[in-house]
Specification:
The structure is a single chain. The chain is α/β, with parallel strands linked by helices. It has 10 helices and 16 strands. The longest helix is centred in the middle third of the chain and has 14 residues. The radius of gyration is 20 Å and the shape is globular.
Length: 332
Amino acid sequence: MKAIGYQRSLPINQVGSLLDIELPKPEATDKDLLVKVEAISVNPVDTKVRMRVEPQEGQLKVLGWDAVGIVEQVGNECSDFKIGDRVWYAGDLTRSGSNAEFQLVDERIVSKAPSTLSNAEAAALPLTTLTAWEMLFDRLEVDATEAKTILIIGAAGGVGSIMVQLAKILTNLNIIATASRPETTVWLKELGADQVINHRNPLSEEIGKENCIDYVVSLNCTDQHMPEVVKVLKPQGKFGLIDDPQELSILPLKQKSISLHWEFMYTRSMFETEDMIEQQRILGAVAGMIDEGQIKTTVSEQLGPIDAANLRRAHELLESQKTKGKIVLEGF
C-alpha cells in the first residue's frame, strides 16, 4: 500500500523529511478495524513527532492521526462496526498513522462519520473535537448550566475553532477568544465567540480588568501568556493547557488556589483506560450535532492528494503558526 513516512528527523524544507513509500497492507484482528483512508488532516502533533521521534535505524515511521475512511475488515472481537461503514477517528499516538492507504484502529476510539460532511470536511475535526471536549468537560469539568466566563487563548487554530463552537452550543459560558489578525477575529465571531481580544497585547488590558475569568484555556505559547493568565483568573479559577512550554512555573497559581489541568487526547488510547470507549461516544455525539447543523467544519485549506510533497507543505504551514482552522488532504 502507498504511505508517507520518514527515517530521520529533519527540517521540513528537506525532501527527506517525508517520503513516499510502499508498505504491506495490514490485517485486522481482535478489536481493530482496518480502514481504507479517504481523507486526513494534519495537526501540530504531526510536526512535533516528526522532529522528536526518530525511528530506529532502517525503520520507517508513518505519521497522521485524523482520518475519515471506509471499514474494509473487522477484527474477531469487534461488535460496533461492519464492513462498508464510513468512520472517523483521531487514532492512537503509539501506532502507525493515517498517512497511508490503510490503517488499523481500535474500534473503541472510532465512530460513524457525520453524513452531511464530505470526507475532507469531516477529516478536519476528530482530534480537535476530542481535545476540546475533553478539556471542557473532563478536565475543567465545566457545568453547562452556569453563567461563567471562559478565555480561550489562541482560539483561531484547530482546537480553538471547535472549542468555541462546543462551548457556545453546549454551555452557558461567556466566551472570550483571542486572535491577532482581522481575518481570524472575524472567523471566531462567526463561530460564536462573544468577544475577541488581541493576544499580542496584555490580556488584562484587553479585557479591561483582573480577577474576572472563571476558566482559561491556553492552546499555544503558554509560557508567554502565563503572567497574564494568573492576573485575569478569579481566585479558585481553573487553568487548562494543551501545548508543551519549555518552562512553566506553577508557583504563581498558589495564592489564588488556581487548579491546573493538562489535556492530552491520546491518554485514553495510550494507556487503554477503562473509559477508552468514551472517545467513541464523544465523536458519535458530535457527528449528530454536525448532521443537525449545529457545528461547522473547520477546514481552512485543502492541499490536494495525500503524498509526501503535499504533507511537507502542510507541516511547513503548521510550523509557521499562522494557520486558521485545519489543513486537509484527500485521496492517494
